[in-house]
Fold this sequence. Notes:
The complex is a heterodimer.
Chain A: E1 3-5, E2 10-18, H1 25-35, E3 45-48, E4 54-67, E5 70-78, H2 86-93, E6 98-104, H3 110-126, E7 136-141, H4 155-162, E8 170-172, H5 181-205
Parallel strand pairs in A: 2-5, 2-6, 6-7, 7-8
Antiparallel strand pairs in A: 1-2, 3-4, 4-5
Chain B: H1 9-22, E1 30-35, E2 40-45, H2 53-73, E3 82-85, E4 90-96, E5 100-106, H3 112-131
Antiparallel strand pairs in B: 1-2, 1-5, 3-4, 4-5
Helix pairs in contact in B: 1-3
The structure holds guanosine-5'-triphosphate and magnesium ion (MG).
Amino acid sequence: MALINPKKREVQVKIVYYGPGRGGKTTNLEYVNEKFRSRIHSEMVTVKTYDDRTLFFDFLPFDIGMVKGYTIKVQFYTVPGQVKYNATRKLVLRGVDGIVFVADSMTLRQDMNIQSLANLKENLAAFHKNIEEIPLVFQYNKRDLEKEGIPILPVDVLEKDLNAQLKAPSYTASAISGDNVVVTMKRIISMTVMSLREKLELEGSV
Amino acid sequence: MDFSFDFSKKQLEFIEDVLTEELLSIGVQLVVLIDLAGNVIVNLDNGRCHHDVYSLAALAAANFGAVSAMANIIGEEEFSLLFHKGETDSIHFSKIGDNMLLLTIFGKDVSLGFLRLKDHEVNERIQSLLEK
Ligand SMILES: Nc1nc2c(ncn2[C@@H]2O[C@H](COP(=O)(O)OP(=O)(O)OP(=O)(O)O)[C@@H](O)[C@H]2O)c(=O)[nH]1
Ligand SMILES: [Mg+2]
């Protein structure tokens, strides 16, 4: 749950990038960090292995200004996507307010996307959260590979595999070139903040 | 388990007073009360310390979570003392209630024993506030 501080009139919101290993979660945050450098007041924190795989998480704080008189501090996290890191992945999900699921469009990764989404549902359930009730955006990443001649999944296959029931907003993207990275980010922020509005209105009246 | 906190302005002021009286007064440089999701509930410093509190909170919550998971694997409930000692400054963590952590950063002039005693006081005072 977002933490509301009525004294500082500040809200901390936690948005987590989830998805299979090597799908491009860290690359998404790196792009945002680069693009909005002037608005981010601290360094991106990464806990990673020697070969640049996320070991625990990446962390990027991002101030988006005021909503209903509160300063909103968005805190972006990525999880480690590799299957073996589930214990730490679960820790990062604690207190999550919104999720971006970064799927890998490569045909080879079809099953990994499906497994990762199932793992997300399971881990949320451990915190008594239901994936259908949490703000969620899908990102079908690595679309640029198509022009390299690498087989990628058509969008309708990805939609059918992952989003048939959830019907969450989805975007194709290329995190490495930044294509649709900011669009994805803005969408999850606005959905997450909308879901908090009601709560802020109540607080505001006290 | 997931959880959420809703502190009123009054409660936050009370917590700030407690942290100032018990910890800043003995020479602690920085004190941060966080939840286990890595959110900052209260942070106070001695005015001469400019660390990135939000990053510290994210890392501290993760660190504590990882150590607790290790404790579970070897059949311990949790490790009560978490302390990282540096050349000049050190970090101490203690659990407050079930879902909060108190992070203190202090130099050589503060003794660990005394700090732990003070942390204990803080824990009791905050707990009794929350029970009200
Ligand atoms: N071609 C292409 N490569 C990408 C894209 N996004 C990420 N990559 C590459 O894919 C590899 C993995 O990207 P990361 O961002 O580290 O993936 P991750 O999801 O954080 O992986 P884990 O930390 O292991 O969970 C890197 O070599 C990236 O450069 C993309 O849109 N297109
Ligand atoms: Mg990563």
